[in-house]
Design brief:
Elements: H1 2-5, E1 10-12, E2 19-20, H2 21-38, E3 42-46, H3 52-63, E4 67-69, H4 76-83, E5 89-93, E6 107-110, H5 111-118, E7 134-139, E8 149-153, H6 154-164, E9 175-178, H7 185-197, E10 200-203, H8 209-218, E11 223-226, H9 228-238, E12 250-254, H10 260-269, E13 274-281, E14 286-291, H11 293-301, H12 305-308, E15 316-317, E16 322-326, E17 339-344, E18 365-373, E19 379-384, E20 389-391, E21 394-396, H13 398-406, E22 411-421, E23 425-434, H14 442-450, E24 461-464, H15 478-491
Parallel strand pairs: 3-4, 3-5, 5-6, 9-10, 9-11, 11-12, 12-13, 23-24
Antiparallel strand pairs: 1-2, 7-8, 13-14, 14-15, 16-17, 17-18, 18-19, 20-21, 22-23
Helix pairs in contact: 2-3, 2-5, 8-9, 9-10
Length: 492
Amino acid sequence: MAAADDPDRVATGPLDSGMTRAELGEAAAGIAGLVHSAGAEELVFAGLNGPAFPVLLFGAALAGVPLVPVNYRLSAEALTGLLGRLGKPLVVADEDFVDVFAGSRAEVVTTPGFLAKARTAEPAVGLEASEDDPAVLLFTSGTTAEPKAAVLRHRHLVNYILQTVEFGAAAPDDAVLVSVPPYHVAGVGSVLSNLYAGRRMVHLRAFTPDGWLSLIREEHISSAMVVPTMLARVVEHLDGRPAEVPSLRSLAYGGARMPPTVLEAALRAFPDTGFTNAYGLTETSSTIALLGPEDHRAALVSEDPAVRARLYAAGRMVPGVEAQIRFFDGTVLPPGGHGELWVRGPQVSGEYQGSESPLDADGWFRTRDLAHFDDEGYLFIEGRADDTIIRGGENIAPAEVEDALLRHSAVREAAVIGLPDEEWGERIAAFVVVHQGADADGETLRAWVRSRLRGSKTPDVIVFRDELPYTPTGKLLRRELVRMAAAERNEA
């Protein structure tokens, strides 16, 4: 559709030398021919952000096989293990990552070599997949357990785009800066939504705050998406200064929980930019709820506590997606009720490779996120059900304690977990990173939390760290914190 609408419009790269829509289609057809001739059942990609990813995504689709973007930061052992769960993969890897696949039995080719070969390859014809075939396999981040391969079929992704994006809605000079990695669902969604809307895609291969800001200025970027850790680093880099990026009209964030202090600082640094919170999961084909720019502006200036609170909401559900809040016994709760979020809709997959469908009899998917809706239909995410701390019979959401800690001027990052305790069942452990040069001790921070929350929610122990463990997409690795705490107990 995009190529037929305007074949000469630049789809990806610099405006004066980027790949046009027609060239993208031709390159994808060549990729499909190579995949078909290799007899591959999956096309695996291990590489950085760049114009290769859109070509491989559409090339795999034309070949009728799923694309499997993998996290190139994983160890050789972990990557080989993931390949072992596939049928007959063909691996396309950036040159820096080729060696990590040396122990696998898969065919491995370099990204530049594969793209060059595709230019002269016989294009594939008539191999397109059906809507029920897998389009993408995405391995979940595995923050609390081993990664699972989420299956997104063509119909899931098509429904996501048709329900959330207007075809050709972007202005001719619109450009988006893509800095989320290809192996994240936001990376997949970014390719599809921006090509469909008509935005030129510019890729940031390796994120740094200064590099991100500089590329926005150089390429006159009009929209961008970041994960919370990226925005936190940008805000810290600016150190109270305005961002001075006049072309940036919209900034979306998502992929992990946004600390309130970071969001508030970012709104001050980008006063002329519209902010959008995009909430979704891998299993839901990306975004299922949006908090738009007007919602942010209204909440920021409101004196009504209920409206002000929406600044930290996930937003309202997108068209085509239904939602319920259920108690742990399955009872559907009314607005205001706190429980687990369940969703249903044509973009919701909820399917994992090699597993039975987790959807219930009526097609509802359990997100395992704790949440509630306010009276106006705004969704608030309270954290993962698996992360809930049960202390003396009371359920405590780590996010509530983390937010209280982050309000202290000395605290840069905070993460809260539950540790086994014979008397209380679990005790609260907080891991804290302080700002450079800041001075704070455990008792001071415990008193700070106690003055803002009930005494039962005060951390029993505070551990100071130079850094916290995150995935590259900004999700906190709580299981790593549990492991670190266990190791410290053993050493003691």
